[in-house]
Amino acid sequence: MNQKSLFFWLIAVGIFVVSSCKDDVLPKPMASLRLDYPEATYKTYDEASCPFTFEANSDVTIKQEKNCNLSIHYPKMKATIYLTFQPINNNINLLLRDSQTLIYKHVIKADDIIEQPFINKKDNVYGMYYAVNGNAATNAQFYVTDSTRYFVDCSVYFYAKPNFDSIMPAASYLRNDLQNMMESFRWKR
Questions:
Q1: CA atoms within a 13 Å half-sphere pointing along the CA-CB vector of 87
Q2: Taking the C-alpha atoms of 67, 80, 54 and 145 in order, what is their torsion angle to the nearest 10 degrees?
């Protein structure tokens, strides 16, 4: 072997040795935060000026707007439940249609909307609970009425771009709270 060949051979071996000592680059697996929330405890919301009561999570902040409309804030989850109260003035069909239109506006982004009727004859509370799956702006909504005097519409919104996979733990937690709120709804006599 001549010197020129030996020189190129040593350089090639040196490059091979230096480059082969590095660790293999492996892609990191997808990960997400583990979001654990405390077990919910509930307290009764009973504002004297409002014709209804319900159980709300004790970790929330409730702000009453005009006419018994409420904003129920979950600061740890960056979410709010909006409750809209309206007296019925021979317009129950319009109120029901408006509530259903609001939920079905999300059908564009939603993968699925599950309807669950609610009937509490003993306390004269009737309504519908909607669970929305997918990247819609809301993931749960309900309405309740006594069908003659009062109508309440309620929905959940997060302060973030809807990405259902990311907010799933918080969405599940809020769905449970919303369902508990609907099931504990009572009209004052």
A1: 4
A2: 60
Strands 70-74, 61-64: pairing kind: antiparallel
Q: What distance in Å separates the CA atoms of residue 189 and residue 187, rounded to the nearest whole number?
A: 6
How is residue 108 annotated by DSSP? G
Query: In this structure, what DSSP letter does residue 118 have?
Result: E
Q: In what order do the strands lie in the sheet with 42-45?
A: 42-45, 52-57, 186-187
Q: What is the pLDDT of residue 22?
A: 56
Contacts 24+ apart (CB under 8 A), 42-47: 42/180, 42/184, 44/184, 45/70
Question: End-to-end CA distance of the chain, in Å?
Answer: 107
Query: Are 87 and 149 contacting, i.e. CB atoms less than 8 angstroms apart?
Result: yes
Give helix then strand counts, H and E, for the chain: 3, 10
Q: Using one digit for the tens of pLDDT, what is the confidence trace for 138-181?
A: 788 999 999 999 999 999 988 876 666 677 778 888 899 999 99
Report CA 1 to chain centroid distance, whole Å.
74
d(CA 144, CA 119) in angstroms, rounded, equals: 9
- Return d(Cα 148, Cα 187) in angstroms, integer: 12
Distance CA 135, CA 131 (A): 12
Query: In whole numbers, what is the pLDDT of the chain averaged over residues?
Result: 84
